[in-house]
Amino acid sequence: MKHLLHTLEGRLATLPVPIALQLPAGQQLGAPDPAVTLRFHDRMALVALATGELGNVGAAIVEGRVALEGGMRDLMAAAAGLLTRDPARDWPQRWWQRLLAWTRVRALATRTLAHAMARDARQVQFHYDLSDDFYALWLDPRRVYSCAYFRTPDMALAQAQEAKLDHICRKLRLRAGERFLDIGAGWGGLLLWAAEHYGVDATGITLSHNQHAHVQRLIQAQGLQGRVRMLLCDYRALPVGQPFDKIASVGMFEHVGRAQMGRYFATLARLLRPGGLLLNHGITAGAVDNAGLGAGMGDFIEQYIFPGGELLHVSAVLHHMARAGLEMVDTENLRPHYARTLWAWSDRLEARLPAARQVLAAQSGAGQGDKVLRAYRLYLAGSALGFERGWMALHQILLAQPDGNAGTGTMPGAQSDYPFMRDYIYAAQGNALPCSTDSSPALAPT
């Protein structure tokens, strides 16, 4: 322990922000005037910090075995300096460690039962049915809970989320009257934006009871009952019937699981008409080999935030898409945009901590509410750091369902609605939203 403390004290002196540690016996290490103080009540959490297992330190903070004083931005600046290895490439070097890691990856790859419909529903509800009032404190007014698109540097969060919604609609070339499916529709931001501004007949699905009820109220309030519907439904249980013209899946496939990824894209391919377009927007792993973030971070997210969540590298995602017969026509990495989005969420939550504590206490009781709040503070700021450092990425992948007819589309040989040019996405994009072009007509806002 003395050696660990000596090593840790040396690392504290090199951090970009002053940090102090109070040990279980009362001894203090680090800066005399710190921006962040961690008060340790047990030795194992101190060992985890010294060995770079920051996810275990986070768990100790959530459980109250370490008390945190200080802001999230300062804490994350310090955390980056305390890591002993890259969490995205935390691949064991010794042969027996590699064997154990390989065994774990294989187990994850075959974990079909972990993503049975009933269990997936419980896992989604664990996160998204936490409390609508809590999410409303730090999300934008539309409650868009996915990476924003900061088209200009001066955009506020709400503007950037609307820019993201319109960016997706443009990529999909939505047209009035088309049948549009939003898989994992959340609180309805994209679903309603597409219906209001692009005139589509829109269907959304979710496994969250809270989200379903919220969107149903919005549909009624906005008089969209005739052409917008929200279903409480698993994607695997959605009847194919008449295939959809366009499909979006935003922030959903992270919940699917490796074992179900092939089935997921095969199902989406069956739901999409020949020649139609599908946009998959989701978090991808920063490294090819890892099954999850190292340094205990992946385990922290699994336990406290997203049970059952699994990330794949974009190369593996593209493999599953191709196996389903879908053609990748455009891929865009929005990784820095998600870092900025997460920092915006984190800052908004930090500014509303008393209100968040009150909301969660009313929902879960004071003790459990405090634990949830500590978990989300660490999750939002830690994820922002992860996207900044490239431990994770965010890819929008646009796919076409080729119809086999070389005469389909505006480009010879296209076989789909995709024009094989990007001009239509960006043409005439000014500060006003929505934007209308000849190739992607939009309705006036209602």
Automatic annotation (TrEMBL):
Pfam families xrefs: CMAS (PF02353)
Keywords for the protein's UniProt record, in alphabetical order: Lipid metabolism, Methyltransferase, S-adenosyl-L-methionine, Transferase
Question: By its UniProt entry, which Gene3D superfamilies does this protein fall under?
Answer: Vaccinia Virus protein VP39
Keyword S-adenosyl-L-methionine in the entry? The reply is yes
InterPro entries documented for this protein: CFA/CMAS, CMAS, SAM-dependent_MTases_sf
- Which GO biological-process labels does this protein carry? lipid biosynthetic process; methylation
For this protein, the Enzyme Commission number is 2.1.1.79
Q: Which GO terms describe its molecular function?
A: cyclopropane-fatty-acyl-phospholipid synthase activity
Enzyme kind, highest EC tier: transferase
Per the similarity annotation, which family is this?
Belongs to the CFA/CMAS family.
* PANTHER family noted in UniProt: CYCLOPROPANE-FATTY-ACYL-PHOSPHOLIPID SYNTHASE
| Protein name, per record | Cyclopropane-fatty-acyl-phospholipid synthase
According to its UniProt entry, this protein's organism is: Verminephrobacter eiseniae (strain EF01-2)
Instruction: Read off the lineage from the record.
Output: Bacteria, Pseudomonadati, Pseudomonadota, Betaproteobacteria, Burkholderiales
